[in-house]
Design brief:
The structure is a single chain. By secondary structure, this protein is of the alpha+beta class. The chain is about 35% helix and about 15% strand. It has five helices and three strands; from the N terminus they run H-H-H-E-E-H-E-H. Belongs to the TACO1 family. InterPro entries: Integrase-like_N, TACO1_YebC-like_2nd/3rd_dom, TACO1_YebC_N, Transcrip_reg_TACO1-like, Transcrip_reg_TACO1-like_dom3, YebC-like. Keywords: Cytoplasm, DNA-binding, Transcription, Transcription regulation.
Length: about 140
């Protein structure tokens, strides 16, 4: 993430998401900073690959597995073992991905919003949104 879009969390949405998820599981800030520095090449050995595996889980359900790794062989073995132990198997490239759509989630705070709610919803629908959820804060 840091190699593709830079090390600034405010301007790199992919990196922001990874940091957000790391903090959600209580990863220490030092570990996060060290990982970002390593990925950016500021420390030795900082090359990471983003890989997507397509597979079928128990009962034939389609599963996309997105991983970020510094060792392709190790992650392949780990993912394969996880699926084999739980009754899943790997599919060919393109066998599962066509069933999924990449979606985004955008939150806009009400504070400072200079457009009324109805106008905002109409413009969002015209832009192709799947839906708008309105709350008191956002």
């Amino acid at each position: 993430m840091a190699t593709n879009g830079g090390t600034d969390v405010d301007t790199n949405a992919s990196l922001w998401l990874v940091v957000y998820r790391a903090k959600a599981v209580n990863m220490p800030n030092d570990n996060i900073k060290r990982a970002i520095d390593k990925a950016a090449g500021n420390k030795s050995g900082g090359h990471y690959d983003e890989i997507t595996y397509e597979s079928y889980g128990p009962g034939g359900i389609a599963v996309l597995v997105h991983v970020l790794t510094d060792n392709r062989n190790r992650i392949w073995a780990n993912v394969r073992v996880a699926f084999n132990k739980n009754g899943g198997n790997f599919g060919e490239t393109g066998s599962v991905a066509y069933m999924f759509d990449c979606k985004g989630y955008i939150v806009i705070e009400r504070e400072g919003l200079e457009v009324d709610e109805d106008t905002f919803m109409l413009e969002a629908i015209e832009a192709g949104t799947d839906g708008v959820i309105v709350s008191d804060e956002a």
